[in-house]
Structure formats: structure tokens, C-alpha cells
Design brief:
3-stranded parallel β-sheet, 70% helix, globular
Length: 483
């Protein structure tokens, strides 16, 4: 059965399966069939657009990064070859496929029971982020139930974080009653919240480094397109430091500047289309809830509405937002430099550096687009992630090669900077593969305490995060349009 599931999803892919799921969910929410159909089409178009842009731009970025690496002469044994290998390995394992089937049913169950207020089933494609950790655990322990338990536990704790940041994410990215819960990107909520008082103490909240600031102060040079060209120029020069006197080098530098400017211009447009896929669903949730409250003769604002729930959406919805993509691109050369100088690091981030805008979305939402804070949080958290990836290099390589994905020639160890450079996920993984009841029990206790606190104090948590956000930049609505 599991092989049939694998064959089905391999044949149709995300650009077909996700729109079908959205169409079904939209009809269930009583969205008009015409609007449900358009939502499905927008999802397919958005995902296809993302795929085209990233597939074209990834080799370009990878080439520049490899040139930056070659100029230093530093050799790091664990090489990032992108998240795709991990996704394929997840769908190639029995544990992964079992979770894909039963995890979806579990997501529906815990939502129905009110354990989570996030409808994760609407974003089932990102379940491979849970599947890869269970697959690695099975590769190490050969314990099927322990490995499945790890994937289910990561789902549960990811949904807690997704709900904690839900009101902020929904407000900042302008998609009502929506949040992201992808396990490879949601844990960044933790540093975004915990480190914010430190950044405020250092005065980062008074430095209004936002897209709006760039536009107001720099004029045309503050536009995302122009900033993309300038960032591309800088990254291109860093990749050609030893050959700046040649025409070939400057040809590559200027081409990369134009290519990055194109990405910074086109991605927001594709993101706007993708956001339209989820907007009618999220608005229907909002309309139904307001109607229900009105019938009860009550007046409840969104913050204090304990029955408010959220649609889990793909984090591609936020990728093209200006602060998100600008901060993500700025972090590309920074993380390469940090990989070289970080003591004890063995990981070289390469292909997944293009995923950095995905990886900072929660931070952007919590800090309300303060690019300086986003970069500071990214440096801290992703540096810890490099250590996690370095430790897991052997396990990840063995898992991926065991489940049928070819390792590139000349590469000893591989990783995915997006999937595996995750400090919290790595700690939970370590606890589970130890098979020590004490460490596993501690993880469960921490989750239960967090869930209890969320259920009891959700309005207070959201109010606190909104007060934090007010000290920073402003919001931007992806659905209504981009500047």
C-alpha cells in the first residue's frame, strides 16, 4: 500500500496534489465552487512558478557560492546538496510513507479534538519535514514505533509553535487566519521571541531597517529590484575576488546582479498569486466565526477568541515579501563566512541557501519586518544549526543513500541546510534515538507544559507578541498587492 502511495504522489507531484487538497477543503468550508476552483488553480500556478524560479536560480547561486568557497581554500566535509534529497528519501522509506498516511489522519483528529487550532492537513505536502527525522531515527535504531513516535511528536510541538506565532504571521503577511507550520522553518519562532529583549536592549528596535524605510530614504535605490541588483553585485564580487581584472568575471558579476534583481521582482508577484489560493479559505473561516459569535450575541476580538483557528499554509506564501526576501538574501554570504570561521563546524551550506527567505519567515513576522533583528536572529540560530548539521552529517548521508538517493560524485558527507540545521529538532532527535525513557519523557513533559500554557494564556501570549512587534516596522498585505 505504501509503495502505491509513493507512486501516486511521485506521479502527480505537489503542483497537482496541493490544489486538489485546497479545492476539497474550500468546498468543505462552503466556499463557492467557482472561488474554490480558482483557489486551487492559484495554488498550482504559484507552486509551479516557485519551482521554475528556484530551479533556474539555484544553479546560479550554487556556482557563485562554490567560487566563494574555492577562493578561501577551506574544505568542509559535510556539503549541503539541498532539501530535495531528504524529501525523496522520506518518501522512499516505510516509516516516512506510514507517517504520510497516518500523520494526515492524526492531523485531522487532533484538530477535531481541539488539541491544536491549526488545520495542518491543508499543508500536507510539508509533512516530509517530519518524515525525514523519523526516517533517520529508523536508520539508526531500526525501531519502527520509536521512529514513528518521533515524527508524531515533532508534529505536535511544531503545531504549538505554529499557533503561538499564528496571530503575528497572519497579521504581518496579510492572510487572515493563516499560519505556517513546516517543521524545518517553524522552530525559528523560538529565537525570534527569546532574543527580542536582547536586541531591544542593544537598540535594534530603534533602527528602522524595513523595506518601507529603504523606499522612503533611498528612493529608487530602496526598491526591492534595485536592492536585489546591489546585493547581487556584492555577492558576485565576493565570488570573483581572485579574478576581478577579467572581463569574464565582470560578466558573471553583472549577470548575477540582474538575475537577483529579477528574482526580487518576480518572486513577490508569484507569492501574491500563491497567497490568493489561501485567502478565500482564510476569509471564509473569519466570516463563519464572526457569524457564530454574532448569533450568540457576543463581541469577541480576534486576540481573545479562544475558538479562533488557523489554516496551515505553505511557507511559499511569505517568501516574496520584501523584508523576508531581502533579509534572506543578505544572510546568504553571511552564513557562508560564518561556516568558515565557526570553530568546530564541519558543514558547508550551499544549495539550500536559496531557502533562507523560507527559513526566516517566523522571525520576520515576530519582529514585524525589522531586517536588522532578522539577520541577528538568523546568525545566532543558523550558526547553532551548523553544529546540528555537522553532528548529523553521517546519519543523514547514510539515511539518504540507504533509501535510494545517489550521492554526488566527490562528496563524502551530505546535508540539507534547510531540513537538518535545526537545533531544537536535533535535540529532540538525540533524545529519541537514545531510547532513554527519561530524555524522551522530558521532551513530552516540556511539550505538555507548553500546550497547557498556550491553551490557558493564548490571548496574553498574542498580546505580548503584538506589543513586541509594535516596537519595530510595519506590515504588508500580500493579497492586496505589493509595493
Amino acid at each position: 500500500m505504501f509503495q502505491d502511495v509513493n507512486a501516486f504522489f511521485t506521479a502527480f507531484g505537489a503542483s497537482v496534489v496541493v490544489p486538489v487538497m485546497i479545492f476539497i477543503i474550500a468546498l468543505f468550508l462552503k466556499v463557492q465552487p467557482k472561488m474554490a476552483m480558482m483557489s486551487a488553480f492559484y495554488a498550482g500556478v504559484g507552486l509551479t512558478g516557485f519551482g521554475w524560479i528556484i530551479s533556474e536560480f539555484t544553479p546560479v547561486v550554487t556556482k557563485i557560492i562554490k567560487q566563494m568557497v574555492s577562493t578561501t581554500g577551506i574544505k568542509l566535509p559535510v556539503v549541503d546538496i539541498g532539501w530535495q534529497a531528504g524529501s525523496l528519501a522520506s518518501f522512499g522509506s516505510t516509516v516516512g510513507l506510514a507517517f504520510f498516511v497516518f500523520g494526515l489522519l492524526f492531523e485531522l483528529l487532533i484538530f477535531a479534538l481541539g488539541i491544536t487550532k491549526v488545520f495542518m492537513a491543508s499543508n500536507l505536502w510539508n509533512n516530509f519535514g517530519f518524515m525525514i527525522w523519523g526516517t533517520m531515527a529508523y536508520y539508526v535504531t531500526h525501531n519502527f514505533w520509536l521512529s514513528m513516535g518521533l515524527s508524531f511528536f515533532m508534529l505536535l510541538y511544531s503545531l504549538v509553535l505554529a499557533e503561538i506565532q499564528a496571530d503575528r504571521w497572519s497579521d504581518y503577511y496579510g492572510v487572515k487566519n493563516a499560519t505556517v507550520a513546516a517543521p524545518h522553518n517553524i522552530e525559528q519562532t523560538i529565537p525570534a521571541i527569546l532574543l527580542d529583549p536582547l536586541w531591544n536592549l542593544l537598540g535594534f528596535n530603534r533602527v528602522k531597517v524595513t523595506p518601507e524605510y529603504f523606499k522612503n530614504k533611498l528612493g529608487v535605490f530602496g526598491e526591492p529590484t534595485t536592492l536585489g541588483a546591489l546585493l547581487g553585485l556584492i555577492i558576485g564580487i565576493l565570488g570573483n575576488l581572485h579574478s576581478l581584472g577579467t572581463i569574464k568575471a565582470w560578466g558573471q558579476i553583472l549577470q548575477f546582479a540582474v538575475q537577483l534583481a529579477a528574482v526580487m521582482t518576480i518572486f513577490p508577484l508569484v507569492t501574491g498569486v500563491f497567497a490568493k489560493a489561501f485567502a478565500p479559505l482564510a476569509e471564509e473561516i473569519d466570516k463563519n466565526r464572526k457569524k457564530e459569535v454574532a448569533e450568540q450575541g457576543k463581541e469577541i476580538d480576534a486576540i481573545h477568541d479562544k475558538k479562533r483557528w488557523f489554516l496551515g499554509v505553505d511557507d511559499g506564501v511569505g517568501y516574496g515579501e520584501p523584508a523576508t526576501i531581502i533579509a534572506g538574501v543578505i544572510l546568504i554570504p553571511i552564513m557562508v563566512v560564518i561556516a568558515f570561521i565557526l570553530p568546530g563546524n564541519r558543514t558547508l551550506p550551499v544549495v539550500d541557501l536559496i531557502s533562507l527567505p523560507f527559513m526566516v519567515e517566523s522571525i520576520v513576522a515576530v519582529t514585524r519586518g525589522n531586517i536588522l533583528k532578522v539577520i541577528a536572529n538568523g546568525i545566532v540560530w543558523f550558526s547553532l544549526g551548523l553544529y546540528a548539521s555537522s553532528w548529523l552529517g553521517t546519519i543523514y548521508t547514510g539515511t539518504v543513500s540507504h533509501y535510494g538517493v545517489a550521492i554526488p560524485a566527490g562528496v563524502v558527507l551530505i546535508t540539507s541546510f534547510n531540513l537538518i540545521a535545526r537545533p531544537v529538532n536535533a535535540l529532540i532527535f538525540a533524545a529519541f534515538i537514545s531510547q532513554n525513557p527519561v530524555w524522551i519523557g522530558l521532551c513530552i513533559v516540556i511539550y505538555l507544559v507548553a500546550l497547557y500554557g498556550l491553551r490557558r494564556y493564548r490571548p496574553q501570549i498574542w498580546s505580548y507578541l503584538n506589543r513586541m512587534a509594535e516596537k519595530n516596522g510595519s506590515t504588508l498585505n500580500l493579497v492586496d498587492g505589493l509595493p
